[in-house]
């Protein structure tokens, strides 16, 4: 029995040491991440301000498609949009939506969204949640996947529900309400 216990101890020690395999540095552990830390669910609610007009636009067109483009297909925007607690731009700033979105469909109103929600308030200050997915922006409620995160939101996964709060057809400015559900450690 003592021999088995000694073997088990050596196995655990060896399995948690750093090893080099064919030039790749790695760490192996018998304990799963979920055994070390409990998974949490965090619900976030904020407003996304996509401002194209005025002195300080927060979204800029960076790619203009050729004239023969169907429905603006290929139009690409770079964004650094404020995320606020309420629908008014003057509401408390809780973060920034930074990234790219583009018209990715020739047949309907589908955008490709590649955004990081970078939070600047409270316990989430410095943390991010990443979205990578399709946004059919003319639908009443859109669901997009959360594919990662940093700091508080390490190993994040989940979904974001977006609902247009207001939109100006003249300027393209929009306020979008987001309800985000994030699973993380």
TrEMBL record:
| Gene Ontology BP, a term | phenylpropanoid biosynthetic process
Q: Does the keyword Secreted apply?
A: yes
One Pfam family linked to the record: Dirigent
The record's similarity note reads: Belongs to the plant dirigent protein family.
Which Gene3D superfamilies does the record associate with it? Allene oxide cyclase-like
Q: Which organism is it from?
A: Malus baccata
Q: Where in the cell is it found?
A: Secreted, Extracellular space, Apoplast
The role this protein plays is: Dirigent proteins impart stereoselectivity on the phenoxy radical-coupling reaction, yielding optically active lignans from two molecules of coniferyl alcohol in the biosynthesis of lignans, flavonolignans, and alkaloids and thus plays a central role in plant secondary metabolism.
Q: Is Secreted one of the keywords?
A: yes
The record's section on PANTHER family has:
NUCLEOPORIN-RELATED
Q: What is this protein called?
A: Dirigent protein
InterPro entries on file: Allene_oxi_cyc_Dirigent, Dirigent
**Subunit description:** Homodimer.
Determine the domain of life of the protein's source.
Eukaryota
**A Gene Ontology cellular-component term:** apoplast
| Keywords (A to Z) from UniProt | Apoplast, Secreted
